[in-house]
Specification:
By secondary structure, the chain is mostly beta strands. Helix content is about 0%, strand content about 45%. About 30% of the residues are buried. The mean pLDDT is about 90.
């Protein structure tokens, strides 16, 4: 059974940092793009960052460039997101996604509330 499980969510202060992790199991995703997405209350889901299997093709949303860092350990089927919140991000649920285009897998999400 394929599972993607996010961890590391929690309250973060504006100006603080947080590291999210996504552990994939059930099959190897070493050759697929892995990505982080987030959805804030009342808003559409947006892609935060993605990384291909070579780790050379990395894409960030404009809103997080220079502050978030995505990384992966393909051998361990692990994906991470280092978040340095120099400005308020707003509460959102962060999910990881990977897999072939015809059969993508999503994690359940990790909530990252931001204190005001």
């Amino acid at each position: 059974q394929v599972q993607l499980v996010e961890s590391g969510g929690g309250l973060v202060q504006p100006g603080g940092s947080l590291r999210l992790s996504c552990a994939a199991s059930g099959r190897s995703f070493s050759t697929y793009i892995m990505g982080w997405y987030r959805q804030a209350p009342g808003k559409e889901r947006e892609r935060v960052a993605s990384i291909d299997w070579t780790k050379r093709d990395i894409v960030y949303a404009d809103s997080v460039k220079g502050r978030f860092t995505i990384s992966r350990e393909s051998a361990q089927n692990m994906l991470s997101l280092q978040m340095n919140t120099r400005k308020p991000e707003g509460t959102a649920v962060y999910c990881c996604k990977t897999g072939p285009a015809r059969n993508e897998y999503w994690g359940q999400g990790a909530q990252v509330p931001v204190s005001s």
